[in-house]
Amino acid sequence: MTCITAVRAFLARGLAPLLLGSVLLSGCTAIWELPQPSAAPKTHDVTIYFPSERYPGTAEHIKQAIAAGESNICTIDRDGAEDNRRDSLQGIPTRKKYDRDEWPMAMCREGGAGAHVDYVKSSDNRGAGSWVGNQLEEYPDGTKVKFVIP
After folding, report:
1. Where in the sequence is the domain holding 23, given as residue range(s)?
2. I need a labelling partner for 45 at 20 to 30 A (CA). Which of 1, 84, 95, 107 fits?
3. Do 108 and 54 share a structural domain?
């Protein structure tokens, strides 16, 4: 166990050339542990946990949309948001004090025509949108974000 720890310490510090000599001088047997490739393909880059208790109407809509077959992964595409919003909301009338909330969101490559749309109280939906925007502002377009809705 001590030998393995020492080997890992050398590798972590980039001292691979000194590794063989150290192993031989210490009396350890060299056993190379190579990282194994993951069996599952990478589906996302970032995970965010949506605050369901703060925005219950929006959270419920997202849960319903995912249960209906929409993805919980959003690929950020800010440039496509305007077109996606237009396409997803086309033909759905507005209501006073409610927003037409779409999932996947307009800012997601997966959004647009065919998105799941529901009416959510404006204050809830706009607060949720602001929260999501703040969480994702540091990530570039193309980042795949997994949404977890408790």
Report:
1. 1-35
2. 84
3. yes
